[in-house]
Design goal:
The protein is of the alpha/beta class. The chain has one domain: NAD(P)-binding Rossmann-like Domain (Rossmann fold, 3-Layer(aba) Sandwich). It has 8 helices and 7 strands; from the N terminus they run βαβαβαβαβαβαααβ. The radius of gyration is 17 Å and the shape is globular.
Length: about 250
């Protein structure tokens, strides 16, 4: 992808799932990639899988102090940041009436507070760059439509989308900011919450008749971060196989 060679890229939640696929893609495009994750075991595995990483950082994105420390470490590793992939997130499958205050706060603290903390710190560094930078936040189709059993997650992702749009207005012209909103992507997190039968049923209702692949989401991130996406900011990009074009159950029979 044009313009990604030697770019300094930070990926949160980058040791597994979509984050790991994004790391692999940016490395292939010649970027200098640093992965942030809270899971030390996953970090060990990604180092084995992607030995060309510029570095890895253990940090909890929901903790503002952890985030500040992570950026100090990032500066030591590669001198700064050009591209942020703000990917870290969690979900809990539960009924609305069963959500506890602690569960609500946990989801919000990672998915929304964490995205805010990391994006704000990244922007402060990027504004010092001659050419600014690019911030890409992980949204979801859950932040665009209502879904049962994930109300806290849905609300957090809706917040990420609005955060991205508003940041784009304030940070332009030096920094571009967009949200990427996947639908059903076959990741370890998805497989942990859905049985094979449930995944098969979901796929049957998607117009493209399958779940997405992490590498396909990674390709969208790469495009938006590259020179090919240089005139794109303040948008939420859906990648869902047509799922929400007319609703999950809208496939023509």
């Amino acid at each position: 992808m044009r313009g990604l060679k030697d770019k300094r890229v930070l990926i949160t939640g980058g040791a597994s799932g979509i984050g790991a696929a994004v790391a692999k893609r940016f490395l292939a495009d010649g970027s200098k990639v640093v992965v942030v994750d809270i899971d030390d075991n996953a970090i060990e595995e990604i180092i084995k899988e992607l030995p060309d990483l510029a570095g890895t950082i253990h940090a909890d994105v929901s903790d503002a102090d952890h985030v500040k420390t992570a950026f100090i470490e990032l500066k030591k590793i590669c001198g700064g940041i050009d591209i942020l992939i703000n990917n870290a997130g969690i979900s809990i499958r539960h009924m609305f009436l069963d959500i506890t205050p602690d569960e609500w706060r946990k989801v919000m603290s990672v998915n929304l507070d964490g995205v805010f903390y990391v994006a704000q710190e990244a922007a402060r560094y990027m504004l010092k760059n001659e050419n600014g930078g690019v911030i890409l936040n992980m949204g979801s189709t859950n932040g665009i439509m209502g879904y049962p059993l994930y109300i806290d997650y849905n609300c957090s992702k809706a917040g990420v989308i609005e955060l991205s749009r508003s940041m784009a207005l304030e940070l332009a012209p030096k920094i571009r900011d967009n949200a990427v909103c996947p639908g059903y992507i076959l990741t370890p997190m998805q497989e942990a919450e859905y049985t094979p039968e449930m995944l098969k049923e979901c796929a049957s209702k998607i117009p493209l008749e399958r779940l997405g692949k992490p590498k396909e989401v990674a390709a969208l991130f790469a495009f938006l971060a590259s020179e090919n996406g240089a005139y794109i900011t303040g948008q939420a990009f859906v990648i869902d196989g047509g799922e929400i074009a007319g609703g999950l159950a809208s496939k023509y029979e």
